[in-house]
Fold this sequence. Notes:
Layout: E1 3-9, E2 14-20, E3 23-24, E4 28-30, H1 35-49, E5 57-63, E6 79-82, H2 84-96, E7 101-107, E8 111-117, E9 120-127, H3 131-142, H4 147-155, E10 164-165, H5 166-169, E11 182-184, H6 195-217, E12 225-229, H7 236-248, E13 253-255, H8 263-270, E14 276-278
Parallel strand pairs: 1-5, 5-6, 7-12, 12-13
Antiparallel strand pairs: 1-2, 2-3, 2-4, 6-14, 7-8, 8-9, 10-11
Helix pairs in contact: 2-8, 3-6, 4-6, 6-7
Amino acid sequence: MGIVVGIDIGGSTTKIAGFREGKMLIPVQISADSAVASLFGAFGKFLYDNNLQLTDIGQVNLTGVGSSEIKQNIYGVPTYRVDEFSANGVGGGYFAGNKKEFMVVSMGTGTSFVEVRNNVPRHIGGIGIGGGTITGLSKLMLNTNDVDKIQELASGGKVGNIDLRIGDISKNPLPGLDLEITASNFGKASSRANCEDKAAGIVHMVIETICQTAVLISNGTDIRDFVLIGNLINFPECWNVCEMIKTMYPQVNFIIPENGEYGTAIGTALANECCLKHVE
């Protein structure tokens, strides 16, 4: 059989990943207003970047909100649809190594949480906080929704000028809460805050909310490992937030993998046959 590729057609970007003899090829992501345009654009770039011919592709698996617009085989190649939550679970498992129980936190336009036990994924739920929140608030507060610009601004800002922290209201750490823990997002913001600080506050608030939610919904279970996937893992603040949360919950382990932004596409490519439905 030829190469199986997985394509995640999301709300703002399309990502594609594929494997040859168990080795991942160069993944690709592009943005376009049309799901169909982004699909074929990503597919063509994937072939070019990996020096492939169309005849090298044996199967195409699709997932994501935009995949419902695809009603026929791609370039005549057998094409299947994969449930997105199953794809998240499989993609998270690719990065989780030999761990048997873990949670996949898919940080896209919004965020979904998928619990995986013994290779069986189960969708726990989701929240309407994610990359779309960052770009939306940035458009209102910073007059830009360009992700690269937001990331540049955030890297030069100080969250401590925006967020109210435990150290701002107490001279001593509280039980389980050191002085750097957030007491209130934007609780210290003023009208004089600069754009860099505002950007840092927005990014920190969104990532902190996502990671805190993941830990809180796992309370009462034996889940201790959290695999983060999606474009938000590329914000440096993601690592900082995870380290901060670990001071409150020392037992948790956040996995921020290389190429984790392609987690859903990877899971789509690796999905078991039982998860596949032919496009109609």
